[in-house]
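job 3f2a | input accepted
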Amino acid sequence: MGYATRSRRATVLLAGLLVLPLAGCSDEPDGAADKKAAARQAAEKRTPAKQQPRPAATAPAPAPANVEKIGALTGCTPEVRIQAKELREGVCTTAQGSWTVTTFPEEKFKTIWLDSARMYGGTYLVGPRWAVGGKPELLDTLRTKLGGEVVRLRDAAPGSSPSS
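job 3f2a | predicted structure (164 res):
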């Protein structure tokens, strides 16, 4: 028996020893994992797949958090009035009416802004990192273009928490 043959045998033996511990890695008794997999597949065939609720046909995916892009989606070129670290705000005026578009660099700034706006009341179309303020009928129309959710804020009674 030559050196090459012994070397090959040693390599095969070593590979087998390395793989052997992996062959029995299972918490299940012999065959239990196979039985569970077969039972799961049979149950999936009998049970119809759960369907996720569909979003309203009139509401597309929410618009991006950018004043100009939201303005373009609504058919206007917004006049930017506020450009701060916490938010940007633009005003749109078209034949449909006027509305404000406010965007935020982070969701937390939108939450703070909405909590502050609660003391004034009003209706807003709210999406991820943006809010559009205007008349409720107009916001319902804009929702078909921007997505989001129409939120009616009530002014807070004295002594109550603005986030309640």
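job 3f2a | Residues 3-46 form one domain.
job 3f2a | closed
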